[in-house]
Design brief:
alpha/beta, nine-stranded mixed β-sheet, disordered C terminus, 21% strand
């Protein structure tokens, strides 16, 4: 191993090379690694200088691997896969669990997943579920996770469709009449681009708190259906409008698990989707005028212009996601 260290400028260079080689694009590798594109370019250049050979041919359409780069990618990718598989095997032998990391918002976790966490554990007794939880708008690539819930303006392929984006104002049953008359404060998420609302309002940095405020009778919240579905089914919250507001995105669960965990992540994505679809079907019977059941089906085309520049996902009071 001492000899291997001398052959590389740093062990980090192998991780950067693997991502760049897999994407054959330095910008996409940078997004995955949460660094800048120039940082990836510099690391690759340093590695090439250290090895004395070119690994990529740079061009306008990306960075194509040379013959030497292809050979190194084959070796590095295989070694990483073996290491990952052995680490998972060690985890299973040590605790009998397969680690799966799920990237979702705190609101989705608190208000939709937690009420059914016992059923999830019963369905996946060998899964050690871990969370990457985000309080505000969920943006950026799903790095270092196995599953990520994201709203996208186009079908990404190799992903599990969950539902169409939609929301409706919600409040506790005792406030519905007042809310319809506009006599109840609005509870909003603090987010860039949130439009000002007329009348009294309260803003919070976490959509989970927005919904908690609505549930204890402090006002009306914009209820994104994938998050409030459970509380609507249970009658703790009710719609205080007669129509849904449809977004321009569809919700997907992106599977980014390595090969040894991909099948488990697929099963978990399917379970989450089936549970949510069951909620939507139930809500279609409770509130037929809203047409919530139709949200289970993807739209043929999405309006690409709906997403603000640099924002792949919306979440929260006005701009929101999972």
């Amino acid at each position: 191993m001492t000899g291997l260290r001398r052959k590389l400028p740093s062990s980090h260079a192998l991780f950067v090379f693997e991502a760049a080689a897999r994407h054959e694009n330095f910008s996409r590798a940078a997004a995955e690694l949460n660094v800048t594109q120039p940082a990836v370019s510099r690391t690759i250049a340093t590695l090439e200088a250290h090895l004395g050979t070119a690994l990529f041919r740079r061009g306008k359409t990306g960075a194509r691997l040379t013959a030497e780069g292809l050979r190194l990618r084959h070796v590095v990718s295989g070694a990483f896969a073996e290491i990952g598989a052995e680490l998972d095997a060690l985890a299973r032998r040590g605790g009998g669990k397969i680690p799966i990391t799920l990237s979702v918002s705190t609101a989705f976790t608190a208000h939709w997943l937690m009420p059914r966490i016992d059923r999830l554990h019963a369905a996946f007794p060998l899964v050690d579920l871990r969370f990457q939880m985000i309080p505000g708008p969920v943006d950026g690539p799903p790095d270092e996770v196995d599953l990520a819930m994201r709203y996208l303006t186009a079908d990404p392929g190799a992903a599990c469709f969950v539902m169409q984006e939609a929301h409706v104002p919600v409040c506790i049953p005792a406030l519905v009449d007042q809310a319809r008359r506009g006599e109840v404060p609005r509870l909003l998420l603090e987010a860039a681009g949130t439009a000002a609302r007329a009348g009294p309002s309260l803003s919070f940095p976490d959509y989970a708190i927005v919904l908690q405020g609505a549930m204890i009778g402090q006002g009306v919240a914009d209820g994104w259906i994938n998050i409030v579905a459970h509380w609507l089914c249970e009658g703790h919250l009710l719609p205080c409008a007669d129509t849904l507001t449809l977004g321009a995105r569809d919700c997907y669960l992106l599977n980014r698990a390595p090969p040894e965990r991909r099948a488990t992540a697929d099963l978990l994505a399917g379970w989450i989707t089936a549970e949510l679809h069951a909620d939507l079907a139930r809500l279609d019977g409770i509130f037929p005028a809203l047409g919530i059941g139709a949200l289970r089906h993807p739209r043929p085309a999405l309006a690409a212009q709906a997403a603000p520049p640099g924002r792949g996902v919306l979440q929260g009071g006005d701009a929101m996601d999972d």
